[in-house]
Amino acid sequence: SQPPQKHSSSRQRKMIMRRSLKLRSITMMILMAVLVWSVTLETCIARRGRHWRHNHRRSSSSDVSDSLSGKKPKSHGNSHHHSSHNNNNNHQHKSKPKPKPKPKQKLPPKADDSNSPVVSRPPKVQPPSLPPLKGSHVFNVMDFGAKGDGKCDDTKAFEAAWAAACKIEASTMIVPPEYTFLIGPISFSGPYCQANIVFQLDGTIIAPTDSKTWGKGLMWWIDFTKLKGIKVQGKGVIDGRGSGWWQQDYPFIDGETKLIVPLNNSAHQNPPMPIRSELDWKMPSIKPTALRFYGSIGVEVSGITIQNSPQCHLKFDNCVDVVVHDVAVSSPGDSPNTDGIHLQNTRDVLIHSSTLACGDDCISIQTGCSNVYVHNVNCGPGHGISIGSLGKDSTKACVSNITVRDVAMHNTMTGVRIKTWQGGVGSVKGILFSNIQLNEVQLPIVIDQFYCDHSKCKNQTSAVAVEGVTYERIKGTYTVKPVHFACSDNFPCVDVQLSAIELKPVQERYHMYDPFCWQTFGELNTPTVPPIDCLQIGKPARNRVQSDHDNIDTSEK
């Protein structure tokens, strides 16, 4: 009987071991399931936390950028998800009080708080009413050592402020009001600066008047180079204090001066010299432009006043997408070569709502310009709005698609003018002058392909071709000659359209003349006052060359 008992107890031990192993297996499976579930839950929570932190950081930085640039903060597509997520968190954690925000929080929350669960705290959204973060995006020249007393040289302070602003996109460099800053030649340059910088000019900037500062001469005084989205705005003044330069340019001769003959003499009298400046020494022969933009895209100038520049007041060279509005230019009518706005190799330009008074062209449109639109501008004194001069020294010049409309001119030498040199090549085409109001303008409408600002110029056969020029609703008074069309024999002016021209004489101190046309072809779409009978209707015969064109005096016919 003993062997069977041993056999039975062995079977019992095996059953107990099997049951134990089964319980252990079940326990292990339960523990594994719980562990996997907990890890999955933590992973989801962690992912949601990182996602919130990333988007909160992105929205905070964009809101700060938008507040500096004056834009409304952009709404993100996941804002609704964040809102509902945070509401759920508030219900789950009612026992924990909401943390109080710090009174002066200048930096967005850090993104590396991985130790504490993000769901335990609702997001801290910075109120949009807070001012821009001063010191990180706004750079006042006074904080960089500027004195603003008009005597100390503040050039270094301006350079330091620009160096700081240059590093941050949509930053603002402030020139505060009620201060006068003496600034030497300075360049605010890229191309490594960030985009959309604002130069906020509300104070006054004045130029040095000692010849030592300028050395042998510079082409510009304040220069913005190779920038994107640059804005110069405000209610401030840029004063070139140029009288010391002007007195060296007398007598100053414009190409149309020969057409203006005083009644008491056949020779044109030179205007009086400006009042001598405080300088007792000679300035360099090369004169600087007051404010120049070069090689830049998306330029805007608004609100400021530029006055008394040694040469051009505002110049754009090799720029694209330019807007100028609510700008004032002011210098005496006898200040030589002081163009108001000068465009060169620049396209896509809008100029409007500005007042320009100077000693040369209110607006000068040079070679390489296209898609220029000028409207609602007051011009005078000055030499009107001009395309050119073009083709000097036998160079090539191309200008196209220019519109000048809704302009008032008073006491200017010319009104709307196209001027080219003999010997040049290229073309001027697609030009519209519309709704120009004139008050005592000497020469309201001018095309001069024999332009010469010297006492005598060499006659040459080639010329910059002029084609497709429309004059409409040009009205007002003139004091010398209403129309002067002097076109090339080899390259006559073609497709010149005239309509609603009403120009009445006002006798002043000059000899007065009838309209003059030479080699000008086009159409009179309406009767004109006075009659412009000299315009040749239609188109010129091809290859027609006048054999005696070198002997023609274009000053009067």
From TrEMBL:
A single GO BP: cell wall organization
Keyword terms of this UniProt record: Cell wall, Cell wall biogenesis/degradation, Glycosidase, Hydrolase, Secreted
Domain of life of the source: Eukaryota
Biased composition annotated in UniProt, kind: Basic residues: 71-84, 91-107
Alphabetized InterPro entries for the sequence: Glyco_hydro_28, PbH1, Pectin_lyas_fold, Pectin_lyase_fold/virulence
Cell division listed as a keyword: no
Compartment(s): Secreted, Cell wall
Region named Disordered: 51-134
Matches recorded under Pfam families: Glyco_hydro_28
Protein family (similarity comment): Belongs to the glycosyl hydrolase 28 family.
UniProt-recorded name of the protein: Polygalacturonase
Lineage: Eukaryota, Viridiplantae, Streptophyta, Embryophyta, Tracheophyta
